[in-house]
């Protein structure tokens, strides 16, 4: 394929992604993530994955997209904003992470990616590839940095200069050659340690390194066992996920409310009092979280978190 066709295809993809609601789009060449290999290996050796055994699987696939999609030439990284109009987390009340306010992002973002793939096929011809929304062994933050979308903050999340960090990352791994973007070379965190200092469970053990087994998001969502007593009194009343490290990040002053109607919270979510959460029934749980990511914990899991977080 000649350079003009590659450029035109890249421009079409980026314009179409923006039309479908993605805020930023970047492209990387599909190749082995050499720098990430020793970091991932050490992270796993330290048991920072906790009980998330699935993170130990497919080590090579995590580092090489060509093992996920045969003949892959490009990794397209995309940003989808979820910052809400109103922060529902209030001191003294049980709190839910902002990303879980509305409809489960896996479905919303995946639907947009399917549309994007269809548009590419219609415009360019048959393209082989896969879409990913936090659902497979893909080093999404590494690819996003490599494709120029931002830098990895000390809390280990991607930070974008224009939009902070309250967004979902998604990927297309495709066999179409595209113009790669320049990697994000600069780190704008500087000497700031607000996220490290604010973490209620001291889960950020070094800049860009999170001990997942201590993270409130892991404890309230991924961990299926009883919560360890050592975390009693440290949950800051978070019962599904946690936003502390992002809330204190100075770059999130640039966060703008999303434009996705499907991410609007159920009206009851901001009105329920602690007593009502503690007496939550299956019927009310099913109504409020009908299409929400919170369904992952089931009622029993959410009640476990509420009882544990209760001061």
From TrEMBL:
Q: Where does cob(II)alamin bind?
A: 62, 134, 158, 169, 217, 242-243
Record keywords, A-Z: 4Fe-4S, Cobalamin, Cobalt, Cytoplasm, Iron, Iron-sulfur, Metal-binding, Oxidoreductase, Queuosine biosynthesis, tRNA processing
The EC class name is oxidoreductase
Listed binding positions for [4Fe-4S] cluster 1 are 189, 192, 195, 249
4Fe-4S ferredoxin-type domain sequence ranges? 180-209
Copy the pathway line from the protein's UniProt record.
tRNA modification; tRNA-queuosine biosynthesis
Which residues are annotated as active site? 134
**Binding of tRNA, residues:** 224
Locate the residues binding [4Fe-4S] cluster 2.
199, 215, 242, 245
Domain of life of the organism in this record? Bacteria
Q: Which PROSITE patterns match?
A: 4FE4S_FER_1 (PS00198), 4FE4S_FER_2 (PS51379)
Q: Which cofactor does it need?
A: cob(II)alamin; [4Fe-4S] cluster
Compartments in which it is found: Cytoplasm
* Claim: Transcription is one of the keywords in the record: no
Q: Which reaction does it catalyse?
A: epoxyqueuosine(34) in tRNA + AH2 = queuosine(34) in tRNA + A + H2O
Per the annotation, how and in what number is the cofactor bound? Answer: Binds 2 [4Fe-4S] clusters per monomer.
Provide the E.C. number(s) assigned to this enzyme.
Answer: 1.17.99.6
Q: How does it assemble?
A: Monomer.
What's the family?
A: Belongs to the QueG family.
As for what it does, the entry says: Catalyzes the conversion of epoxyqueuosine (oQ) to queuosine (Q), which is a hypermodified base found in the wobble positions of tRNA(Asp), tRNA(Asn), tRNA(His) and tRNA(Tyr).
Name this protein carries in UniProt: Epoxyqueuosine reductase
Q: Gene behind this chain?
A: queG
């Amino acid at each position: 394929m000649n350079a003009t066709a590659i450029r035109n295809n890249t421009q079409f993809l980026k314009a179409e992604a923006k039309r479908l609601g993605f805020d930023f789009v970047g492209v990387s060449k599909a190749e082995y993530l050499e720098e990430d290999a020793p970091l991932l290996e050490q992270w796993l050796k330290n048991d920072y994955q906790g009980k998330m055994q699935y993170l130990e699987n497919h080590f090579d696939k995590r580092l090489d997209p060509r093992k996920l999609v045969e003949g892959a030439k490009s990794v397209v990284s995309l940003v989808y904003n979820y910052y809400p109009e109103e922060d529902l987390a209030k001191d003294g009340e049980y709190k839910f992470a902002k990303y879980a306010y509305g409809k489960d992002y896996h479905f919303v973002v995946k639907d947009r990616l399917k549309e994007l793939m269809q548009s590419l096929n219609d415009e360019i011809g048959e393209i082989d590839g896969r879409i990913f929304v936090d659902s497979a062994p893909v080093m999404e933050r590494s690819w996003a940095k490599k494709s120029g979308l931002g830098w990895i903050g000390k809390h280990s999340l991607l930070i974008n200069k224009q939009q902070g960090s309250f967004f979902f990352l998604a990927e297309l791994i495709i066999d179409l050659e595209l113009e790669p973007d320049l990697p994000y070379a600069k780190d704008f965190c500087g000497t700031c340690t607000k996220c490290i200092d604010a973490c209620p469970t001291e889960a950020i053990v070094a800049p860009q390194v999170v001990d997942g087994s201590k993270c409130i998001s892991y404890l309230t969502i991924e961990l299926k066992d009883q919560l360890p007593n050592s975390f009693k009194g440290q949950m800051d009343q978070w019962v599904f996920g946690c936003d502390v490290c992002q809330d204190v990040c100075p770059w999130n002053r640039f966060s703008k409310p999303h434009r996705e109607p499907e991410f609007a919270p159920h009206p009851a979510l901001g009105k329920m009092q602690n007593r009502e959460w503690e007496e939550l029934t299956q019927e009310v749980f099913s109504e409020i979280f009908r299409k929400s990511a919170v369904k992952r914990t089931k009622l029993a899991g959410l009640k476990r978190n509420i009882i544990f977080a209760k001061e």
